[in-house]
Specification:
Bound molecules: flavin-adenine dinucleotide, NADPH dihydro-nicotinamide-adenine-dinucleotide phosphate
Number of helices: 6
Helix content: 10-25%
Strand content: 25-35%
CATH architecture of the largest domain: 3-Layer(bba) Sandwich
Largest sheet: 7 strands, mixed
Length: about 325
């Protein structure tokens, strides 16, 4: 018969590892499935895809994203987390203990923490891979303050709240910001639209799509096309930011937890409880607003504390 564990954590970004550190220190002997390129991202999560992380407290000179995640992983293991480099393909919440399954077989646990993050959508433009993290990014708040973008023109793709938020944020550093909207209208809220329209550093190019990223060792130009007139142009930019939405990694839940209209897990206000008692969620998989390493870590802590309280109330620890 399959052994029942106290708690299983699925996902290995800042949320999952913070949850693991708290659960391990609470003597819950957590098991973590860190994923094997789940959602196209290496174990350790989104920060493994970036260079300098300058806004995570405790590192005054900044720290490289992969190194920060390696240190979190070491800390999880140091306190007693067992980590498997495997992707969970399904969970079964219809009976307790819950079942977690994948190519590794089946594991059971009294409580689950879902910390599978979200994947920023990327556009498959020519040169997009070559200049990824060499001028092209999917997170202006993370990368926008880097010296390479200072006092130079940059571009943001998207017409939603994220795109406008990122464009406005970038005006603090860049000399000017092109906002490239593929249709002739914003999807963003009225208040955000007004912010973009009233900002003198932002130029909105309607019905405009990027077809190619150009440069040598770094991005220096983008080729754009007006999809109404078919007129093409080349813009000098040092940065290109995708802000076309994120995909939360929730497909494997197969509808067993309540999700919002964008596919993010719904958690109860003021806690990390999901719609199923005993299952908790943290990090970007339940947060489409803040999406930062520190907020992911904070909610990871909350999820572990909520899980410990649940297990204690049920007499399972
Ligand atoms: P993630 O980091 O997304 O990690 C989730 C992990 O779970 C992934 O490894 C994934 O493979 C795994 N997983 C998914 N599905 C499964 C499954 N079914 N089974 C097992 N494992 C699974 N934030 C900052 O605060 N500062 C920055 O400088 C910064 N820079 C960034 C740069 C880039 C390029 C990007 C994309 C993001 C950046 N962010 C930054 C945002 C930050 O990375 C995220 O907010 C944070 O990583 C979210 O953490 P998380 O733990 O929720 O999930
Ligand atoms: P949205 O889905 O709202 O917007 C995505 C934008 O990207 C749309 O303008 C869309 O264009 C465009 N887009 C999508 N795919 C492509 C593509 N292939 N090429 C070019 N453009 C593309 O995502 P957001 O991340 O902006 O927002 C997600 C949620 O988070 C929303 O509910 C939003 O309100 C919320 N949010 C709120 C904030 C705030 O209140 N301050 C800040 C950030 C997010 P099209 O319209 O043509 O489909």
């Amino acid at each position: 018969m399959t052994k029942t564990h106290t708690i299983i954590i699925i996902g290995s970004g800042p949320a999952g590892h913070t949850a693991a550190i708290y659960a391990a220190r609470a003597k819950l002997s957590p098991i973590m499935f860190e994923g094997e390129f789940a959602g196209g991202v290496a174990a350790g999560g989104q920060l493994t895809t970036t260079t300098d992380v300058e806004n995570f407290p405790g590192f005054p000179q900044g720290i490289m994203g992969p190194e920060l995640m390696m240190q979190m992983r070491d800390q999880s293991q140091h306190h007693g987390t067992t980590i498997y480099t495997k992707t969970v393909s399904a969970i079964d919440t219809t009976q307790t203990p819950f079942t977690v399954s994948g190519s590794f077989g089946e594991y059971r646990a009294h409580a689950l923490i879902i910390a599978t993050g979200a994947t920023a959508k990327r556009l498959p433009i020519t040169g997009g891979d070559t200049f990824w993290q060499k001028g092209i990014s999917a997170c202006a708040v993370c990368d926008g303050a880097l010296p390479i973008f200072r006092d130079k023109p940059v571009a943001v793709i998207g017409g939603g709240d994220s795109a406008i938020e990122e464009a406005v944020y970038l005006t603090k550093f860049a000399s000017s910001v092109y906002l490239l909207v593929r249709s002739n209208q914003f999807r963003a809220s009225k208040v955000m639209q007004e912010r973009a329209l009233s900002n003198k550093k932002i130029s909105i190019l309607w019905q405009t799509e990027v077809t190619e990223a150009l440069g040598t060792d770094r991005l220096t130009q983008i080729r754009v096309k007006n999809n109404h007139t078919s007129v093409t142009d080349t813009l000098d930019v040092s940065g290109l930011f995708f802000a076309i939405g994120h995909t939360p990694n929730t497909a494997f839940l197969n509808g067993q937890l309540a999700l919002d209209s964008n596919g993010y897990i719904v958690t109860t206000m003021g806690s990390m409880r999901t719609s199923v008692p005993g299952i908790f969620a943290c990090g970007d998989v339940q947060d489409h607003v803040y999406r930062q390493a520190i907020t992911a870590a904070g909610t990871g802590c909350m999820a572990a504390l909520d899980a410990e309280r649940y297990l204690s109330e049920k007499g399972l620890i």
